[in-house]
């Protein structure tokens, strides 16, 4: 998978969105099925406004979308953004694996020399 070119600020927003346990839990819940903000708020021991703020962070990072259904705001996960985050993590893993391989090579050379 080719990762779309994201700006540094877009990558920052994406990983900041996942940096909070409540936001990761919200993503897990809406990955199973869309929920209203009210339904999401019922799962947490925090105010409705606090949950709305978490949802807003996820929305700014394009991890979720909201749409109106009657009087409710329905939250839905954006799987394309989840795939982008996974691909970015894969790229970082590749970089670190390469670095570990280089360290192993250097250590092997020291043992032989």
Structure notes:
There is one protein chain. With 113 residues, the protein is α+β, with helices and mostly antiparallel strands. The protein has a single domain, classed as Winged helix-like DNA-binding domain superfamily/Winged helix DNA-binding domain (Arc Repressor Mutant, subunit A), CATH 1.10.10.10. The chain contains five helices and three strands. It has helices at 8-17, 21-32, 37-41, 48-60, 79-112; strands spanning 35-36, 64-69, 72-77. The protein has a three-stranded antiparallel sheet. A hairpin with a 2-residue loop joins strand 2 and strand 3 (72-77). Helix 1 (8-17) packs antiparallel against helix 4 (48-60) and helix 2 (21-32) packs across helix 4. The mean pLDDT is 91.
Blueprint (SSEs and pairs):
Elements: H1 8-17, H2 21-32, E1 35-36, H3 37-41, H4 48-60, E2 64-69, E3 72-77, H5 79-112
Antiparallel strand pairs: 1-3, 2-3
Helix pairs in contact: 1-4, 2-4
Please tag this protein with its features:
single chain, 113 residues, Arc Repressor Mutant, subunit A, 12% strand
Tell me the strand percentage band: 5-15%
Number of strands: 3
Q: Please state the CA-atom Rg, rounded to the nearest Å.
A: 19 Å
Q: Considering the protein shown, what is the CATH homologous superfamily?
A: Winged helix-like DNA-binding domain superfamily/Winged helix DNA-binding domain
Q: What helical percentage do the residues reach?
A: 55-70%
**CATH fold assignment:** Arc Repressor Mutant, subunit A
The order of strands across the largest sheet is 1-3-2
Mean pLDDT: 91
User: Assembly type of the shown chains?
Assistant: single chain
Overall shape: it is: elongated
Helix count equals 5
The CATH class name reads Mainly Alpha
How many discrete domains? 1
Report how far the terminal alpha carbons are from each other: 41 Å
Low-confidence stretches: none
CATH architecture name: Orthogonal Bundle
The biggest beta sheet is recorded as: 3 strands, antiparallel
Structural class, from secondary structure content? Answer: alpha+beta
The SSE string, one letter per element, is HHEHHEEH
